């Protein structure tokens, strides 16, 4: 199920500057793509367009050949998961376990399935001992793992992370990178924004650079 942009362009309503123009890129399942470029070049803007938080000014974003604007944000989110730059903003339940179960309940899954997926992803991200913990009290790295558990439990096709390495020490960067590799091996497409050359070199299969509103592949 390919995620692609067709002549995608974006201008914020409040400004005249076209941040992105005629972007034609394709993301594939089982692949890790790094989005790079200078501060303010449009990396976050592109990720928000890919999940429908922003609507294209020109062109489109397609998933499996269908324009994502025909889908609701919730539907898109189930297929193309997004982990915010600051995962605290995405956390709102009172326990770690509930945080994962919440999205699954909204999908209308049976209770048994909710419980088995919750346990599976708690274990996958080594959060089982935090089942009853108040999520906002977790460390930055743990919150990020929790958000990955929350979104992966919904079995999306793609996972997008905006600057996931910011604020993580070397050890936690490696932990995150190794999780990304595992996610990729499980068949998910991974797209992340980062400035850290070593991290990008170690984990990305492809590097897309945004410059002057356009994307080039390194
Ligand atoms: N809500 C907004 N309204 C107007 N301009 C914005 C808005 N958000 C971001 N921008 C501008 O769009 C450009 C790209 O921003 P962004 O995608 O956040 O860059 P990056 O993530 O690469 O640092 C920047 O020049 C930024 O100032
Ligand atoms: Mg950004």
CATH superfamily: P-loop containing nucleotide triphosphate hydrolases
Q: Helix-strand pattern, N to C?
A: EEEEHEEHEHHHEHEHEE
Side by side, the strands of the main sheet go 7-8-9-4-10-11
The fraction of residues assigned to DSSP E strands is 15-25%
Q: Give the C-alpha Rg.
A: 17 Å
Q: Please name the CATH topology.
A: Rossmann fold
Number of contiguous helices: 7
Q: What is the CATH architecture annotation? A: 3-Layer(aba) Sandwich
Broad CATH class: Alpha Beta
Structural class: alpha/beta
Mean pLDDT: 95
What is the domain total for the residues? 1
Structural commentary:
The structure is a single chain. The chain is of the alpha/beta class and 218 residues long. It has one domain (3-217): Rossmann fold, CATH 3.40.50.300. The chain has seven helices and eleven strands. The chain has helices at 43-50, 73-79, 96-106, 111-124, 140-152, 170-185, 197-203, and strands at residues 3-11, 18-23, 26-27, 32-36, 58-63, 66-67, 80-83, 158-161, 189-193, 206-211, 214-217. Strands 7-8-9-4-10-11 form a six-stranded mixed sheet, with helices on both faces. It is globular, with a radius of gyration of 17 Å. The site of adenosine-5'-diphosphate has 12 residues, from α1.
């Amino acid at each position: 199920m390919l995620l692609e942009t067709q002549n995608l362009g974006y201008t914020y309503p409040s400004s005249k500057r076209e941040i992105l123009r005629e972007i034609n890129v394709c993301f594939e399942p089982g692949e890790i793509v790094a989005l790079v470029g200078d501060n303010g070049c449009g990396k976050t803007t592109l990720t928000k367009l890919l999940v429908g938080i922003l609507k294209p000014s020109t062109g489109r974003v397609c998933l499996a050949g269908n324009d994502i604007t025909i889908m609701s944000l919730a539907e898109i989110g189930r297929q193309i998961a997004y982990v915010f730059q600051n995962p605290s903003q995405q956390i709102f339940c009172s326990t770690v376990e509930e945080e994962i179960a919440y999205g699954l309940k909204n999908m209308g899954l049976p209770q048994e399935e909710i419980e088995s997926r919750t346990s599976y992803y708690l274990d996958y991200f080594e959060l089982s001992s935090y089942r009853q913990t108040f999520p906002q009290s977790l460390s930055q790295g743990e919150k990020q793992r929790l958000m990955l558990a929350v979104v992966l439990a919904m079995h999306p096709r793609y996972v997008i992370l905006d600057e996931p390495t910011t604020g993580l020490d070397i050890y936690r960067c490696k932990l995150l990178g190794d999780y990304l590799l595992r996610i990729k091996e499980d068949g998910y497409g991974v797209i992340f924004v980062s400035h850290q050359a070593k991290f990008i070199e170690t984990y990305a299969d492809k590097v897309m650079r945004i410059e002057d509103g356009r994307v080039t592949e390194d």
